[in-house]
Write a structure and sequence with these properties.
Strand content: 15-25%
Bound molecules: flavin-adenine dinucleotide, iron/sulfur cluster
Order of helices and strands: HEEHHEEEHEEHHEHEHEEEEEHEH
Number of helices: 10
Shape: globular
CATH architecture of the largest domain: 3-Layer(aba) Sandwich
Largest sheet: 8 strands, mixed
Number of strands: 15
Helix content: 25-40%
Strand order of the largest sheet: 7-6-8-9-13-14-5-15
Number of domains: 3
Length: 356
């Protein structure tokens, strides 16, 4: 047979390894990075290969030694220091990662954000000042489900404010945005999604200067399986999650507002609904983001902000109406430590946590 049909490129493990070491073990965060640039992978309940992996076919896609899908996954081996050096610039803080500035406050303009509305305001000001032309954000889908969208207008950004405590394949939209011709892209994501974004940038766009990505990370202690969270919300609070107006986790409480009334329970009561992958995650503050935002460390109605790069600083400086408040660094550090203590060390851990 001709080499045209059987190009002789050394076959490596690619998706097989991703499936064996991450997906089948329940370590997949559902970030969507593996499917972002590969037409062979579709995101069903989990990422699945729809046809033979083309890793061995030279002219289909340029895969790295182990396959791009494997390389960009946030749960596979990651050289965090290399990524910090490539994307961030600031002082090293043992607990918080690279920091240029730590602050807290709220944005009066947004008014309806999850906490201080800082992420929504950053997106609005970044779009207005041309720092990016579009952003990948999570908009509410049916019930309290959520889906990723590529937004290019203030209306879409405002519509998507608020936290959705479910896995949203944010990074899957990166490929679509680039195919649509977008070059200056902001992405909002949990720490695992930001790690995947950085891995994509490092593996695929190192030499492509015109692609400019700014990563806005959200603090994240854990995330939930939608169906299980929905069941727990009915069982513990007597509320249909799909009808909730707002869901919040604050100071150890799970708070749901529905029909103008709030009910709450201890967040620990939801343990059975937590996604398995979150028990193998040690990044609380999105250490690889240009700018990280969360509620821990600031008063109710405000957001804590960690600026980690010049890009993050430029975006923060474009903010209008930011009202600063005190920041409780020790409070953030307590959450960082607690998350590390929560890790389920055992024989089965994802490649990112393996010490060998
Ligand atoms: C799963 C999850 C767990 C979190 N856990 C904590 C925690 O333990 N402690 C803490 O301090 N903070 C946590 N946060 C962050 C916090 O809930 C707020 O998102 C953050 O404080 C920003 O508030 P804001 O008012 O500035 O955001 P807003 O102005 O309301 O903007 C929120 C932005 O986040 C995007 N978004 C919403 N849900 C998701 C999602 N699932 N994936 C990706 N993007 C999304 C929206 O599109 C929107 O652009 C968590 C966030 C998530 C998504
Ligand atoms: S990204 Fe590469 S290795 Fe992974 S499934 Fe696609 S072609 Fe195969
Ligand atoms: S890249 Fe993301 S969606 Fe794909 S296997 Fe890894 S964690 Fe799961
Ligand atoms: S706890 Fe970690 S793995 Fe789970 S959603 Fe948050 S960042 Fe991702």
């Amino acid at each position: 047979m001709s080499e045209i049909f059987f190009p002789l490129v050394k076959r490596s493990e690619g998706f097989d390894a991703l499936k064996r070491r991450v997906i089948d073990k329940g370590f997949c965060t559902y970030c969507g990075a593996c499917a972002a640039f590969c037409e062979h992978i579709v995101l069903k309940e989990i990422p699945e290969l729809v046809e033979d992996c083309s890793l061995g076919y030279e002219d289909v896609i340029k895969c790295g030694e182990t396959g791009i899908c494997y390389d960009v996954c946030p749960m596979t081996e990651t050289n965090e220091q290399e990524l910090e050096e490539a994307f961030l610039e600031g002082k090293r803080d043992e607990e918080l990662g690279i920091v240029r500035k730590l602050t807290a406050g709220s944005c009066v303009r947004a008014g309806q954000g999850q906490d201080g509305g800082v992420v929504t305001s950053l997106l609005l000001s970044g779009l207005k000042s041309g720092i990016f032309d579009c952003c990948i954000i999570a908009t509410r889908g049916s019930g309290f489900r959520a889906e990723p969208v590529i937004a290019g207008s203030a209306e879409e950004i405002k519509e998507a404010s608020g936290t959705k405590y479910v896995a949203v394949p944010m990074v899957s939209k990166m490929g679509e945005a680039i195919k649509e011709g977008k070059r200056k892209i902001a992405i909002v994501g949990t720490p695992c999604e930001i790690r995947a974004t950085r891995k994509i940038q490092h593996v695929m766009f190192k030499e492509v200067e015109e692609i400019d990505i700014i990563a806005i990370g959200l603090f994240c202690f854990e995330n939930f399986d939608y169906d299980l969270l929905s069941e727990k919300t009915t069982e513990l609070l007597g509320i249909e999650l799909g009808e909730a107006e707002k869901v919040q986790i604050s100071k150890g409480r799970y708070i749901v507002r529905s029909n103008g009334k709030e009910k709450s329970c201890k967040v620990t009561a939801l343990e059975d609904a937590v996604r398995n992958n979150c028990f193998y995650c040690e990044d609380f503050t999105a250490r690889l983001a240009d700018i990280s935002v969360g509620s821990v460390g600031s008063p109710d109605g405000s957001s804590t902000v960690i600026i980690r790069s010049k890009k993050g600083e430029e975006l923060f400086n474009s903010l209008e109406g930011f009202v600063p408040t005190d920041v409780d660094r020790e409070g953030i550090i307590r959450a960082v430590s607690l998350k590390k203590e929560n890790i389920r060390w055992g024989d089965e851990v994802p490649p990112i946590l393996r010490l060998d």
